[in-house]
């Protein structure tokens, strides 16, 4: 996983609602990238709703927030409609960005081992450097913690 002070790997990914997002195109503002395992699962839904609830506060602080998973744009759009989400979701279907950020790897649940996305969040500063990393995120209170750090 990337460490604070390292350059944030650039990417261009498709987003819900159409279009693409290129990280380097957002230079000059802080960016939050929160990686999550799967649309419409309990923890991922809670996290997306929490970031949506703070959307205006992030915007007032000049911070762009994006959720990233391997789900398709079509799944993202369904997830957004179902839960009235207000945070753009980026689709990394081939997993390149997940690998670049070190969030793709072996996981365990119910005694089974499988490959998946480790829930993690990265705060990227205005110059495109990793400012802060939250590995193995616990959802409760996370969005508020990220907002506080982004304001700092």
From TrEMBL:
Active site location: 44
Recorded catalytic activity of this chain's protein: a hydroperoxide + [thioredoxin]-dithiol = an alcohol + [thioredoxin]-disulfide + H2O
EC number per UniProt: 1.11.1.24
GO annotation, cellular component aspect: cytoplasm
Keyword Cytoplasm part of the UniProt annotation: no
Enzyme class, first EC level, given as a word: oxidoreductase
One MF annotation (Gene Ontology) recorded for this entry: thioredoxin peroxidase activity
Transmembrane segments: none
Keywords attached to this entry: Antioxidant, Disulfide bond, Oxidoreductase, Peroxidase, Redox-active center
Family annotation (SUPFAM superfamilies): Thioredoxin-like (SSF52833)
Domain Thioredoxin: 2-152
Gene Ontology biological process terms, A to Z: cell redox homeostasis; cellular response to oxidative stress
Keyword Disulfide bond in record: yes
Pfam family, one: AhpC-TSA
Stated role: Thiol-specific peroxidase that catalyzes the reduction of hydrogen peroxide and organic hydroperoxides to water and alcohols, respectively. Plays a role in cell protection against oxidative stress by detoxifying peroxides and as sensor of hydrogen peroxide-mediated signaling events.
Family: Belongs to the peroxiredoxin family. BCP/PrxQ subfamily.
Assembly with partners or alone: Monomer.
Name this protein carries in UniProt: thioredoxin-dependent peroxiredoxin
Organism whose genome encodes this protein: Celeribacter indicus
Lineage per the UniProt record: Bacteria, Pseudomonadati, Pseudomonadota, Alphaproteobacteria, Rhodobacterales
């Amino acid at each position: 996983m990337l460490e604070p002070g390292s350059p944030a790997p650039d990417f261009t990914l498709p987003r819900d609602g159409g279009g693409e997002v290129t990280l380097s195109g957002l230079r000059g503002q802080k960016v939050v990238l929160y990686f999550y395992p799967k649309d419409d699962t309990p923890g991922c839904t809670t996290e997306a709703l929490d970031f949506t609830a703070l959307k205006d506060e992030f915007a007032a602080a000049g911070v762009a927030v994006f959720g990233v998973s391997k789900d398709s744009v079509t799944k993202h759009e369904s997830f957004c409609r179902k839960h009235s989400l207000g945070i753009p979701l980026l689709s990394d279907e081939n997993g390149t960005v997940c690998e670049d950020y070190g969030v793709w790897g072996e996981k365990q649940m119910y005694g089974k081992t499988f490959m998946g996305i480790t829930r993690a969040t990265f705060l990227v500063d205005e110059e495109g450097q990793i400012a802060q990393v939250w590995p193995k995120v616990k959802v409760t209170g996370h969005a508020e913690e990220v907002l506080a750090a982004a304001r700092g």
